[in-house]
Model the fold of this input.
Amino acid sequence: MSLKQTPLNAAHRAMGAKMVDFGGWDMPVNYGSQIDEHHQVRHDCGMFDVSHMRVVDMRGAGVRGFLRYLLANNVDKLTMSGKALYSTMLLDNGGVIDDLIVYFMNKEWFRIVVNAGTADKDIAWMKQQATQHAPKLVIADHPELAMIAVQGPNARAKVWEALPGSKELTENLIPFSAVEMGTMFIARTGYTGEDGFEIMIPAKAAPMFWATLAEKGVKPIGLGARDTLRLEAGMNLYGQDMDETISPLEAGLAWTVDLKSERDFIGKAALIANPPKRKLVGLVLQDRGVLRGHQVVQTAHGAGEITSGSFSPTLEKSIALARVPKEVQVGDSVQVEIRDKLLNAKVVKYPFARNGKGLI
Amino acid sequence: MNNPANLPNNLKYTASHEWVKTEADGTISIGITEHAQELLGDMVFVEAPAVGRKLKAKEECTVVESVKAAADVYAPVNGVVTAVNSELDSTPEKINEDPYAAWIFKMKPDNAADVAALLDAKAYQTVVDSEAH
Done:
């Protein structure tokens, strides 16, 4: 089966990217050193091709009411045009179908960005639910939109240089909100723990914009560094830290689930009926080695499992997210089974690093 | 691979991507090839075998870990571990920077002929080429 390509595929190859099969997409994992790319984003800025992610627009009267029911977080928190909300979308049994960002644009238009690997499944689910609860809504995805994330302390200034007119429009844009600029959509969001923008742009215009950013000195960053940046920032990765068998309450996402309001939503009854027995914690390895997904964690309260683990370039130590019995507390010492050894790790509060600095 | 691998002619190689250099004292130094480090990416951890450990050819004896993944390194021949490069504990990135200088461990081979029978640069190049397809 041939791999899907983003509009920037040729640009990545021209820049010396090492390309890999990423869930059926031919994507750059790095352009040289993943660690250098990681530091580049923490200390200056870099750009990521995230065009494999999918934009879905929901339009029509009653769209807010539908999303109030569809999503675990409450879209009623969105009152200002352009404001974004992070949410999970759940099955009836409380398992996570996907995590996403939803933007409120106007009372008849919300824009949603979903993960690449789950996009088709997500859209089918949205449409199926809409058929029952909001049959007049128009749900349209936009695979023709490319997406470029520019992230790092200097990211916004570089975008302003590369995109005339954008400064006036986005200088006062508060974090986690977006604004339209012609055919582009500029959001002050990201997946790195740094300031910056995620910019949706028609596929045809994407290579030119990418090249302009490169001319302004913005370095391309591969998916390898994207993963270590998001892990340091304590952000979940769908398919690793949660999936359809995991409750958001056991994935460190209770803060995104609104159980307080009267509002009913898909999965709510299951979440209330099944209080969490486990929780997501951060681990820092004390011994030498590297934490990886699926390694078993031994705690005083029973076994757990690492969901995401890697080497943290900022802390120069190995770090992980792990799902462990809920009695485990920050500061506890635990042991991780790595090959034939038990290595010592400490339970910590995450994020591990954001805004250029280690937090541990 | 897009680029032909950098393969010094004075070294021997294995199909599992180790390089082997015969030293003046008859011991051999073992590391991983440029191709292997390229596939793994930035190295962050090396767990070398204990000095004195007896190894059989093709036995897993070392783990190298990059940011991306862990990989086993295998003994190229039967023999005994005589030294490990402890410099790599604090600077595993030397494997990326200069893979043929960054030896991981040394062995005294049981039989020098076993070393002579390993792949030469040309034969190893064939292995690398076949993996690319």
